[in-house]
Amino acid sequence: MTDLFSKFDALIGEREALLATGVRDPFAIVMDEVKSPTLAVIKGKETILLGTYNYMGMTFDPDVVQAGKDALDNFGSGTTGSRVLNGTYQGHKACEEALQEFYGMDHAMVFSTGYQANLGMISTLAGKGDYIILDADSHASIYDGCYLGNAEIVRFRHNSVEDLDKRLGRLPEDAQKLVVLEGVYSMLGDIAPLPDMVAAVRKHKNCMILVDEAHGMGFFGPNGRGVYEEQGVEDEIDFVVGTFSKSVGTVGGFCVSNHPKFEVLRLVCRPYVFTASLPPSVVATAATSIRKLMHAGNKRAHLWENSKRLHTGLREMGFKLGTETPQSAIIAVILTDQTQAVAMWQSLLELGLYVNMARPPATPAGTFLLRCSLCAEHSDEQVTQILGMFEAAGKATGAIS
Ligand code: PMP
């Protein structure tokens, strides 16, 4: 029988064949209990979490949790409305104020997810007749924002300043252009050479720059604003998009900017207008977490130590990694194919370690990856345990000798 599902037959077949070999389904893990930012119980087994993007470990911060409880008590479980109707509570305003302070920017707009922040900002800024210039390895939410807005899409080679410059040079000078970059690219954990990219963009007319700092917030720069702060290009970036689902430790998305006309977006941005706002408990936890992240220098330093130790240890064991040197809190282990990736992933899980598995089309160049993301709350002892588990799983599966 042929119907609208027929296009998924190949995927269904591939998945059934994989599961028939007896492996656990990597995309159907259930956390039965979560004990801390770094520890959960999965199928009765205590498991170290190394694939959460919970970089700063804020999910169990007592102040953050208390703020959520208080908001639940005082404002109820949800707003049941859009930000532009009944869905703006004082908590949403307080969260936007926390973001303005955190980023030192005039305007902040909170969305219901980071995905919607990209969808909304990109589609609203760049419409028919405009151009969006984006890195080929951009996150799905960036691509989807391009499609929603109907702008012309121009891709440049991942992190290639030369290609960015060349492609901008081919576009009509008078056309309005939005260049979209990411601070940290989440698949391989590499960072963008933002000063060189900004310099290339500024050679061309009518360009605005948006940087997605989903994986940079909390960790990079003296104030934890992101890679763009660490690399000293704050004055050159027109819009910063981010998420609450990583360092902030809850859910939600945002955009901050100094553009004088920014506030008009609240009226015209469809993924902001036509959806319900975040529950009061969520914005309360986000605001508390953001304020604490302003003073998280010690956590940042420990996260760097963890990243460096894991990267060095895995490289010395002979694993192929996404970057030559540790560049962020993401360390990607590149495996030869799906069979090896799944075998490694399952072996690690049985030993008590959870990592993310990523495969095409989400990954660049058809790679199969085990993505590790470190947390500032991983203890030195846990990093030692993690390294031991990788060595054991790598040898058992033949991924290393
Ligand atoms: N941008 C990037 C670069 C991301 O990696 C993600 C999530 N993985 C998002 C945006 C979307 O964030 P959220 O989970 O808040 O929807």
Describe the fold and architecture.
By secondary structure, this protein is α/β, with parallel strands linked by helices. It folds into two domains: 24-56 and 297-397, Alpha-Beta Complex (Aspartate Aminotransferase, domain 1), CATH 3.90.1150; 62-293, Type I PLP-dependent aspartate aminotransferase-like (Major domain) (Aspartate Aminotransferase, domain 2, 3-Layer(aba) Sandwich). Helices cover 40% and strands 18% of the residues. The protein is built from 14 helices and 17 strands. β8 (184-185) and β9 form a beta hairpin. α3 packs parallel to α11 and α12 (297-317) runs parallel beside α14 (380-397). The model has no long low-confidence stretch (mean pLDDT 96). 4'-deoxy-4'-aminopyridoxal-5'-phosphate binds at residues 113-115, 118, 139, 141, 182, 186, 212, 214, 243, 245, 253.
Brief digest:
With 401 residues, this protein is α/β, with parallel strands linked by helices.
Task: Set out the fold topology.
Elements: H1 9-20, E1 33-36, E2 39-42, E3 45-49, H2 62-75, H3 90-103, E4 107-111, H4 114-125, E5 131-135, H5 140-149, E6 152-156, H6 161-169, E7 177-182, E8 184-185, E9 190-191, H7 194-202, E10 207-212, H8 227-230, E11 239-243, E12 253-257, H9 265-268, H10 270-273, H11 280-293, H12 297-317, E13 320-321, E14 330-335, H13 338-351, E15 353-354, E16 356-358, E17 368-373, H14 380-397
The protein binds 4'-deoxy-4'-aminopyridoxal-5'-phosphate (PMP).
The site of 4'-deoxy-4'-aminopyridoxal-5'-phosphate has 13 residues, from helix 4.
